[in-house]
Structure formats: C-alpha cells, structure tokens
Specification:
The protein is about 75% helix and about 0% strand. The protein contains twelve helices and no strands. Helix 4 packs across helix 5, helix 7 packs parallel to helix 9 and helix 9 runs antiparallel to helix 10.
Length: about 280
Amino acid sequence: MVSLFESIFLGVLQGLTEFLPISSSAHQRIAGEFFSNAQDPGARFTAITQIGTELAVLIFFRNDIKKIIFAWFRQSVLRATLPSEEKLQARMGWLIIIGSLPIVILGYLGQDIIRNELRSLWLIATVLIVFGIVLGLADHYGKSNRGLKELSTKHGILYGLAQSLALMPGVSRSGATIAMGRLLGYNRDAALRYSFLLALPAVFGSGLYELKGALSDGAGTQAYSLLETFIATGFAFVVGYAVIAWLLKFVTTRSFLPFIIYRVVLGSTLLLLLATGVINP
C-alpha cells in the first residue's frame, strides 16, 4: 500500500515537473530519498513514466503533429511538390529528426553511466544550481526576434545537443532546450513549443525501450512493480496535460525567473542536507 501511494505521488510529480524547466528526473530522484525505503526510483521508472507526459504532448499538439507528419511523408516519401506552408511543416519534421539524434546516440552509448554515476545527489544539486543560472542568463539576455518558421538546420542541431544534456538529472530537458532557444534569439513561446515537439521521439524511444526491458524481466522497475509503474504513468499523463496548457499561457506574459529561483533554492537546500548527512548521496 505504501509503495502504491509513493508511485502515485511520483506520477503526479512527473506530470508537474516534466515540462517546467526544473528537471523531473531530479525531482523523482530526490523524492525517493524521503520515502519509506529511501530508495532511488531508478532511471527505468523515470523513463517509463515519461511516456505518460509525452502522450499528453501528443494529444495536446495532435493537429500540429499530424500536419508535420503528413507534410514530411508527402515530401520525403511521395516526393510531392508542396505549397510553402507545407514545406515549412515538412522541414520541421526533418529538424525534429535531426535534433533527436544527439540524445538518442549518447543515451544508448552511455546507459550505464546514466543509470549509476549521473544519479548522484551531489551532482544533481550542483547541476540544478548551475543550469538554473544558465537558463536565467539566457532568458534575460536572449533576444526574441525569431519564431519557429525561422528555425534552421544549424539551430536544430544546437537544440538537439542542448537536449542531450538532459541525460544528466538536474539539467531539465525543457530547461536546456529553452535556454538554447533563448540564446539563439527565439521568443519564449517558440522555444517552449519546439522543446515539446523535439522531446517526442527521444522520450518515447527511451520509455518504450525501458518498458520492453521491464516486461521482459517481469519484475517491474528498480523500486516498483509494473502495475505501480503503469499507475504512475497514468497520473503523469493527466497532470502533464494540465501543465502544458498552463505553461503556454504563462510564458506569454512572464519570464522563467520563478523557476530559476526555485532551482537555485532547491539545489542549495539539497547540498545542505547532503553536507549535514540528513540524506545519503
């Protein structure tokens, strides 16, 4: 019963933090230390529950995604001549593919490091603070003179490299890609929207890969059964969908400063708890 409650809590936490630039994987790792068994939920549990939040993206942006897929298919497979608007959508499809390559390659090659060394709480605390400051500087000094229609192949690759940093818990997938977008001069809405779209292939790929492993093992994830993991994924989907709608409205009138302050405070508090031995790294 305790583990079921904990898995539901982690699912809600995943939904709340996946799209905010505060790192959902860091929050799940930290939360595990305060549960009854003081155990890391594990990279596999995090990857599977992220399927829920990406399903929310898939449904929320279903019309945009459908247009991108159809335009890309018509241009790349059917070799059809497209009108200008569809050309932009087909190009977006290619940019999402290109931008996904860095995190797919690095994630596959560095599985052992990601599962073990990168989940140190000392590292997570430091990364929360450092990349919070990076996001703050990028958001404050970045220009807002570009929209998604101006996204180039070079910028798509840079976005992808930024996203690959999220393999390290504490960086935040959305935080890294938003920071890169702001540094490149994209407005907050454009940077956020591309962050949502770019995450789809990588997160689904990682989540389904880990789900296959969990099903093959038949033992669930590191700390939770398959049923508990699926329940957490369902809660992540529902909460994540609501967060997407809220965040898109938020960035139209506000900066990312509240999230930056939160990251620095959380990272500093975590360092204090580790230094005093309250929690184990």
